[in-house]
């Protein structure tokens, strides 16, 4: 492969990551859409699925706050906990607006990091 070929195809790995990521997740969304009409919202199966999904998200958030890697690990624990608490409070105060809650948490985390570092 020549230098021109490499420069012309620099985007190929990114395209493959995008397509593979899309296929891996989108197929489950379509299966969910097709199956949703046949499932009752209050069924034991969907209650269990919601509980497992909530537990997984909670564990990921806890790990990011308590045992972070990389640059996040360089921030003090009180700053990470404060950002999470303030972000959650803003999420609830904004009537469950996810963008507002995440934005507030990021603002606290980045602002605190800039002040402390």
Automatic annotation (TrEMBL):
Entry keywords, A to Z: Membrane, Transmembrane, Transmembrane helix
Record carries keyword Transmembrane helix: yes
Record InterPro entries: Brnchd-chn_aa_trnsp_AzlD (IPR008407)
TM region positions: 12-36, 48-66, 72-91, 98-116
The protein, known as: Branched-chain amino acid transport
UniProt source species: Pseudovibrio exalbescens
